[in-house]
Amino acid sequence: MNKSVLAGILALVTSFTLGGLAIAQQVDALRGAPVDAPTPITKEFQWKENEKRVQRNYRQQPPLIPHSVAQYQIDLRTNQCLSCHDWSNAGERGAPTLSMTHYLDREGNELDHIAGTRYFCNQCHVPQADTPALVENEFVPSFSK
């Protein structure tokens, strides 16, 4: 390659790198704090023991968790949700069972244990709470149309 092409590529890579760093330094969470700063959970976002189950807003919405999960351990070795909600325990615990989709691998094969892609429950399911919206929106649940 000739020198002018290499110089052009180097200038392009440098500008993308510096531009990316400038953008990354300006990112804040919706809560108004830096994304890596711990923030306490305010009273309005905490679980209230007497809350009733909240209806889903659209057909494919993952169910909300109707109980506190503050002390639940979910990591590579332990998933406390499964102690009640796995199909082998749910009946005796009186808890809803996991959907059969949680027992399918990526190719659609049925498994006798929860699929690794569905193991971390809090990726899709969150505790329900009657909280103010983080941003203004005009969302209308599909069942109300």
Automatic annotation (TrEMBL):
Keywords tagged on the record: Electron transport, Heme, Iron, Metal-binding, Periplasm, Signal, Transport
**Domain of life, per the record?**
Bacteria
Record keywords: Glycoprotein included? no
Keyword Iron assigned: yes
Pfam families reported for this sequence? NapB
Record's signal peptide: 1-24
What does the subunit section of this Swiss-Prot or TrEMBL entry state?
Component of the periplasmic nitrate reductase NapAB complex composed of NapA and NapB.
Q: What does this protein do?
A: Electron transfer subunit of the periplasmic nitrate reductase complex NapAB. Receives electrons from the membrane-anchored tetraheme c-type NapC protein and transfers these to NapA subunit, thus allowing electron flow between membrane and periplasm. Essential for periplasmic nitrate reduction with nitrate as the terminal electron acceptor.
Q: Which family does it belong to?
A: Belongs to the NapB family.
Protein name in UniProt: Periplasmic nitrate reductase, electron transfer subunit
Q: What is the lineage of its organism?
A: Bacteria, Pseudomonadati, Pseudomonadota, Alphaproteobacteria, Rhodobacterales
